[in-house]
Amino acid sequence: AYTGSDAYSQILSLDKYLLKKFLTDLHIKMKKSFLVENDNLPIGLNFPIFIKPNKEGSSIGIKEDNILNSYK
Question: Whole-structure pTM over 0.70, yes or no?
Fold first, then answer.
């Protein structure tokens, strides 16, 4: 017997950007966020900001240097 989540649930829950889009479409309020690709941060950010990997679960990929205080 299989008791875990199905493949769709796993894919959705491990992709933070996709999950936020899904929940927003259901009118569930979410904290403001954005997807950064190729190290291109948007202009006009209010620092500090926290960056985390899009496709990891739990705290994988989270370190002290995920907090950014400037564009440098």
Answer: no
Helices (H) and strands (E) counted in the chain, each on its own, are 2, 2
AA letter at 48 = P
Give the pLDDT confidence score for residue 33 in this predicted structure: 86
d(CA 50, CA 61): 12
Percent helix / strand / coil, the chain, rounded to 5: 30, 5, 65
Whether the per-residue pLDDT at 25 is higher than 90: the answer is yes
Using the structure block, give the residue that is written with the tokens 């990997």.
Answer: 53
Dist. CA 61–CA 71, nearest whole Å: 20
Residue 56 has pLDDT above 80, yes or no: no
Please give the C-alpha separations between residue 49 and each of 4, 11, 42, 53, 66, in angstroms, as whole numbers: 34, 26, 12, 13, 8
DSSP 3-state assignment of 68?
A: strand
